[in-house]
């Protein structure tokens, strides 16, 4: 396997392709690596790399964030969440509390954490307090949470789950009438947990070239070279260019922990809607630690109708790979990392923030270079 980035770029440029090939990358980490390394500017113009739905903060249901805000504002709790969630806006009337950051500014006891262990430590240090851990993330985030749960947690630690599985969203995308992707680069970190065989359905069901990739330029270019050759030679298969850590069956222990800790449920993805069997919810034997059951008065069904993106925001189209970030009318104008309107401009895995932070501005010159 060729592992040198310069060699891989040379091989890609030598491929006999003239028509545009659209390659979707599922993972926000992949998009960050691609954009920060400037790979699009180094690749042939016929390759169209499309950011996909791999940003858990971007697709976190608006009603879940709203629920976390209301619990933090109105209950005597300490609410913990990963830092990316703090500035995600929800749809509220003028002067309403729009984010966890704003709730914190109004006096809610909210803290940013980086790992489940910090949530456990907080609950153990403050047994007199009710701790609510707001969990948003994909399999790689939910697996450490499941490991924490397997060790047993104190009664004062409640979880508000907004965990998601990755493959159902990809299946939904590929099954859509608007799907026009020619190849897929699958997320290496998810495959580390779930195994690369989980992605075989893309090649067998949809006949789309697929390769699992890591996060270095070399691994991403290797995956891209693989799917391009598959496309040219019409020999479609599932490739693994992240062999250092990804195995066919994945991490069986982590999978067992996930199965024991969570039930798989139909779940809402912000801007997309309900995707069957795509969400992690606490298993029944852990219902005493389920924040939704503990605070049922903050589960408002009406919020599901409000769970779209903010007015004028095209984050949903970006997530679905229908447009590039700069095609949104708000990008770089009223929406920037300093003043985000949509969730894609908040998270470090959001395509809009990645592009803006990499200097891709909303100007005619920049757009003509990227399109």
Structure description:
There is one protein chain. By secondary structure, this protein is of the alpha/beta class. The protein has 3 domains: 5-54 and 167-240, Rossmann fold; 58-166 and 250-306, Rossmann fold, CATH 3.40.50; 315-360, no CATH class. Helix content is 39%, strand content 19%. It contains 18 helices and 11 strands. Strands 4-3-5-6-11-10 form a 6-stranded mixed sheet, sandwiched between helices. The longest helix is centred in the middle third of the chain and has 17 residues, at 217-233. It is globular. The two termini are 31 Å apart. Residues 363-371 have low confidence and may be disordered.
CATH class of the largest domain: Alpha Beta
Main β sheet profile: 6 strands, mixed
CATH architecture of the largest domain: 3-Layer(aba) Sandwich
Q: Assign an overall shape.
A: globular
Average the pLDDT over all residues and give the rounded result: 92
CATH topology of the largest domain: Rossmann fold
Structural class, by secondary structure, is: alpha/beta
What is the radius of gyration?
21 Å
Distance between the termini: 31 Å
Q: Determine the strand fraction and express it as a percent band.
A: 15-25%
CATH superfamily of the largest domain: HypD, alpha/beta domain 2
Number of domains: 3
SSE blueprint and pairings:
Elements: H1 5-14, E1 21-27, H2 28-36, H3 39-42, E2 47-54, H4 56-59, H5 62-74, E3 77-82, H6 100-105, E4 110-113, H7 116-125, E5 130-137, H8 139-150, E6 157-164, H9 167-174, E7 183-187, H10 188-194, H11 200-205, E8 210-213, H12 217-233, E9 238-240, H13 252-261, E10 262-269, E11 273-282, H14 291-294, H15 303-306, H16 315-319, H17 351-357, H18 364-370
Parallel strand pairs: 1-2, 1-7, 3-4, 3-5, 5-6, 7-8, 8-9
Antiparallel strand pairs: 6-11, 10-11
Helix pairs in contact: 1-12, 8-13
